[in-house]
Design goal:
single chain; alpha+beta; eight-stranded mixed β-sheet
C-alpha cells in the first residue's frame, strides 16, 4: 500500500512539472529573463581587433602618401562617446599607446541621438574619412589643429572649419553616460591634446587622423 502511494506521489510531481513547463506563465517568466550581455573583456577584444585592422589599412595609405610611419590617430565612431574611442597608435610596434574620449558632431541639434554623418558645409555633423593634420593655431577653443579631408566623405572639412581641439567638457576617463557633443569637430580633453601635440609637433611628416565607423 505504501509503495502504491509513493508511486502515485511521484506520478503527480512529474505531471505537474510537465504542465508548468508548457503553461503561459512559465513561457512569460522565461521571456522576461534579460538577454546575456557580452562581457567587457569581449568588447575590449573586438575593439582591439578592429583598431588593428584599421591600422593595417592605414599603413598602406601612409606608405603611398609619405605620411608619418611611426604614429597615427584612429577614431572609432561605432563606440559610444562615453568610452575611449580615440586611439594613439604606434605603427612600428603595432600597439595602442593611449586611448581617450572624443566628442562627435550634434548636427546642430540640441542633442543628437545616435550618429549621423555629413560632408555638407553648415551641417554640424561629423565626417568620416581620413584627415591630414595641418597647421596649428589659436582660435575660439584655444590651441587647435586645422584638418584637411582626404576622402569624398570629408573633402569639405577645411571649408567647414572642422578642427582638432580640446574642451573642458570632455572628461579624462570613461564615464557612465554620453559626453558633450561638438559641431562636427573631433574634440578631446585638455590633457589629451597635450599628448597629441607632442606627436604632431615633433613629426617632420604629416600625421594621419582617420575617423571611421
Amino acid at each position: 500500500m505504501n509503495l502504491l502511494r509513493y508511486l502515485l506521489f511521484i506520478s503527480t510531481i512529474i505531471l505537474t512539472a510537465s504542465w508548468f513547463s508548457l503553461s503561459p506563465l512559465w513561457k512569460k517568466s522565461k521571456t522576461l529573463q534579460p538577454p546575456k550581455k557580452e562581457s567587457k573583456s569581449t568588447d575590449s577584444t573586438n575593439s582591439k581587433i578592429k583598431v588593428k585592422r584599421k591600422a593595417d589599412e592605414a599603413k598602406i595609405f601612409i606608405s603611398k602618401k609619405g605620411y608619418n610611419d611611426q604614429k597615427c590617430f584612429l577614431i572609432d565612431m561605432s563606440l559610444p562617446s562615453s568610452k575611449n574611442r580615440f586611439f594613439l597608435y604606434d605603427l612600428k610596434k603595432d600597439s595602442i599607446i593611449n586611448k581617450q574620449l572624443v566628442a562627435h558632431g550634434n548636427c546642430f541639434e540640441y542633442w543628437l541621438e545616435g550618429r549621423r554623418y555629413s560632408n555638407t558645409v553648415g551641417s554640424g555633423c561629423t565626417s568620416i574619412g581620413k584627415y591630414r593634420i595641418g597647421n596649428s593655431y589659436i582660435g575660439k577653443f584655444g590651441f587647435s589643429y586645422k584638418l584637411h579631408g582626404l576622402d569624398s566623405t570629408n573633402s569639405n572639412a577645411f571649408e567647414r572649419t572642422i578642427v582638432l581641439h580640446s574642451h573642458s567638457c570632455i572628461p579624462d576617463t570613461e564615464v557612465a553616460d554620453d559626453i558633450c557633443q561638438s559641431n562636427g569637430c573631433p574634440t578631446v580633453s585638455l590633457i589629451f591634446l597635450q599628448e597629441i601635440k607632442k606627436i604632431v609637433n615633433a613629426s617632420k611628416k604629416p600625421v594621419l587622423l582617420w575617423i571611421y565607423e
